[in-house]
Amino acid sequence: PILLRRYFWNLFKIILLYSKVLNKSDIYEKRIKRDFSKAIEYYQKVAALGNSRALNNLGKIYLNLNKKKEALKCFKEATKDQNIEYYYNYAKLTDDESEKCKFYKLCADFNIGIDQNFVNDSNIEIQAESSSNELLTKVKSSQNIINNISSQPSVNDNYSKDKEIKCESAYEYAMFMKEKKVASEFEKYIKIAADFGNLNAIIEYSKYLEKNSRIEESEKYVKIAADKGDINSILNYAGYSEAAKNELESNKYYKIAADQNSPKGLYKYGKIQERKEKYKEAMLLYQKAADLKYS
Question: Residue 42's pLDDT is what?
């Protein structure tokens, strides 16, 4: 019984330390100099136990060291688990277009409302025994090695990061579909990316809607892009508002464009000032537009 208790106590310590490292719970308590060789040695041990988080972290280290081939292999192996970050890291790094397309789509379709921290780690207790003493040593000496590669995220940070990955991946996959002329897939995924707030996707989607004579919808997305600061969208939305006789909106957005030193914005806002008989302000705006070669 004593030996059995000792066995389970040692096993428990291994699991506890292992979890602490992968959760980075000690990173903020102890700051030590980066030692990538120790980090690689430790993560290789944990990765050998079949853990994808260790593989993903190992890939990040290799990428930090400009070892793309080794990083790509780790990221690829990590994708055996269903995790949006693992899929994205592999998709972003691989040069294989079909693989890139496949994994961007997996990210775009991913349900990001779940905790992915310990997916498929249920067998770690069984596998840990064979490396118990060595793992204990490596854990104690390597807990803070990846300190400067990634920080400890909160639940909200995780969600925000996953949302950003899903958004970027939907855009990338949509652009693959645009190139392949698969209109239905392009529309579906460019809208996902646009609705998640990707500016490039918003602009692309507004153009797609306009091309397909869905003007009212297009104007909605042009305004969203304008409010995110895209100068062409600002000018386009000001033009839409001007055509619709919405003087308040057109004046507002032409002024925004002028404040950003857009030549067209300066000229159009100069015209607005001229109509208000503010000739001095109008002349200054016209001069700025001319200096910027607006004609």
Answer: 78
Among left, alpha and beta (phi > 0; psi -120 to 50; other), residue 36 is alpha
pLDDT value of residue 118: 43
pLDDT tens readout for residues 165-180: 999 999 999 999 999 9
Reported as a single tens digit per residue, the pLDDT across 9-37 is 666 666 666 665 555 433 333 334 456 77
Which H, E and C letters describe 11-27, residue by residue? HHHHHHHHHHHHHCCCC
At 47-97, the pLDDT tens digits run 888 889 889 989 998 998 999 999 999 999 999 999 999 999 999 999 999
Q: End-to-end distance of the chain based on CA atoms, in angstroms?
A: 91
| Backbone phi and psi for residue 227, each to the nearest 5 degrees, phi listed first | -70, -15
Residue with tokens 């200054």: 284
Average pLDDT across the chain, whole number:
82
Nearest to 87 by CA among 60, 108, 66: 108
* DSSP secondary structure letter of residue 81: S
Separation CA 153–CA 229 (nearest Å):
29
Full DSSP string of 192-233: HHHHTT-HHHHHHHHHHHHHTT-HHHHHHHHHHHHHTT-HHH
Residue given tokens 């809607």 in the structure block: 209
- Cβ contacts of 185 within 8 Å, gap of 6 or more: 173, 174, 177
Q: Coil, strand or helix: which one is 118?
A: coil
In 3-state terms the chain splits into helix, strand, coil percentages (rounded to 5) of 75, 0, 25
DSSP annotation of 148 reads G
Instruction: Give Cα separations from 117 to 7, 24, 51, 126, 291 (angstroms).
Output: 27, 12, 11, 19, 56
Q: Which two tokens stand for residue 230?
A: 């895209």
